[in-house]
Structures are given as structure tokens and as C-alpha cells.
């Protein structure tokens, strides 16, 4: 698996020290507020676990299973595999996702929450945001790292469901991409 990585972008220690900063800011912003974190699976499972353990607030967590990617391209279509939503009426909601690329996924999630949930506020937090040329349909309130417009894997992010368990974030070799 490690042979398939062309370049490591962020080692685990770098990721975790940035999470310390993000967690500190989120803790300050949601002090005294009823917070529900909605984590978007599968991609955010490691990010969620590492970030939430750094936030000493009495928050609630709900996980949504959403997919939009096939290989290294977005399908443009967002599939919600979960139909039942946690009750967040009168609560503040923070959506956690692994990466903001086109913004189509986050926009669909926000739209659904805004229409149905009765949440007091809706914000989002992503570990990575890709630098893109065209205007996005949506942006994130908290961003871990701004990355170049390349396909990345590891720390929860996959290529055809593989590489999620790498402890760092890296870029695949052309050979690994071609093999799938
Ligand atoms: P968006 O809807 O284009 O913003 O894409 C967001 C989703 O696509 C993320 O939650 C990821 O699951 C997936 N994705 C986007 N870029 C990458 C990448 O570079 N590596 C792995 N997954 C990605
Ligand atoms: Mg994916």
C-alpha cells in the first residue's frame, strides 16, 4: 500500500497539531451552546474521532452516510444512504466532512438540514479544501488545510474505497490510479 504513494502531503503529527487549533476554536465558538456534530461518512471517520476527542463540550454526534465520488471524479450526484435524521430542533449544528472539492456534497447536506431540521445555526468544518478556479456553490466555516487541486488519499479519504486507513494524507502514483 505504501508503494502506491507518490508524495506525503501531511504527516499524522502535522494533522494532529492542526486539529488542536481547530478544536480550540470550535470549543470557544460553541461554549454554552447545544451542539450537534453531524459527521459525513465514510470519509470523515478518522477526522471525526481525532477532532471530537479534542473538544471538551457536552456535544451530541450523528453520522450520515453520503456518497458522490467514483474513482477520482465526482459523479455530481449526492446519494444519502441514511433517511432517518437526528432531532436537532433548537440546537446548533456543525457538519464535519473530509474534503471540500466542488462543494456539491456540502451544499446538498446543508439544503436538507436547512429545509427539514429546525436547527438554530448550521456551520461546516472540513479537514481539507481544494484550491479551485471556479466559484463554489458553498464554502466551509472551519478549514484544516488548503490543498492543491490533486486527488488525495489517507486519513479517511479513499480511492475506490481503499487507502482510508493510511495515517497520513498523500498523493497516489499514476500506476496506482491506473490499476483500479
Ligand atoms: P464535492 O461534492 O465535490 O465537494 O466532493 C466532496 C466529496 O468527494 C468528499 O466528501 C470526498 O468523499 C470526495 N472527494 C473529493 N475530493 C477527493 C480527493 O481528493 N480524494 C478522495 N476523495 C475526494
Ligand atoms: Mg470517497
Q: How is the secondary structure organized here?
A:
Elements (H helix, E strand, L loop, with lengths): L4 E6 L1 H18 L5 E7 L3 H8 L7 E11 L2 E8 L11 E9 L3 H13 L4 E10 L11 E6 L4 E2 L15 E4 L1 H6 L1
Parallel strand pairs: 2-3, 2-5, 5-6, 6-7
Antiparallel strand pairs: 1-9, 3-4, 8-9
Helix pairs in contact: 1-2
Overview of the structural elements:
This protein is an alpha/beta fold and 180 residues long. The chain has one domain: 3-Layer(aba) Sandwich (Rossmann fold). Helix content is 25%, strand content 35%. It contains four helices and nine strands. Helix 1 crosses helix 2. The mean pLDDT is 92. The site of inosinic acid has 18 residues, from strand 3, strand 5, helix 3 and strand 8.
Outline of the structure:
This protein is 25% helix and 35% strand. It is of the alpha/beta class and 180 residues long. It has one domain (13-148): Rossmann fold (3-Layer(aba) Sandwich), CATH 3.40.50.2020.
Order of helices and strands: EHEHEEEHEEEEH
Per CATH, which architecture? Answer: 3-Layer(aba) Sandwich
CATH topology: Rossmann fold
Beta-strand content estimate: 35-45%
Bin the helical content.
25-40%
The low-confidence parts are: none
- Category by helix and strand content: alpha/beta
| Helical segment count | 4
Envelope shape: globular
What is the CATH class name?
Answer: Alpha Beta
Give the CA-CA distance, first to last residue.
13 Å
Amino acid at each position: 500500500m505504501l508503494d502506491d504513494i507518490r508524495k506525503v502531503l501531511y504527516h499524522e503529527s502535522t494533522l494532529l497539531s492542526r486539529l488542536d487549533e481547530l478544536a480550540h476554536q470550535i470549543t470557544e465558538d460553541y461554549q454554552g451552546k447545544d451542539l450537534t456534530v453531524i459527521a459525513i461518512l465514510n470519509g470523515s471517520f478518522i477526522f471525526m474521532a481525532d477532532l471530537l476527542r479534542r473538544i471538551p463540550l457536552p456535544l451530541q454526534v450523528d453520522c450520515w452516510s453520503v456518497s458522490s465520488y467514483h474513482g477520482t471524479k465526482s459523479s455530481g450526484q449526492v446519494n444519502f444512504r441514511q433517511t432517518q435524521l437526528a432531532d436537532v430542533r433548537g440546537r446548533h449544528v456543525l457538519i464535519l466532512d473530509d474534503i471540500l472539492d466542488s462543494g456539491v456534497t456540502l451544499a446538498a447536506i446543508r439544503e436538507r438540514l436547512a429545509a427539514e431540521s429546525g436547527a438554530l445555526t448550521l456551520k461546516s468544518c472540513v479537514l481539507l479544501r481544494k484550491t479551485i478556479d471556479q466559484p463554489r456553490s458553498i464554502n466551509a466555516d472551519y478549514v484544516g488545510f488548503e490543498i492543491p487541486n490533486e486527488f488525495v488519499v489517507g486519513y479517511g479519504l479513499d480511492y475506490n474505497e481503499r487507502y482510508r486507513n493510511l495515517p497520513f494524507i498523500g498523493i497516489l502514483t499514476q500506476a496506482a490510479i491506473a490499476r483500479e
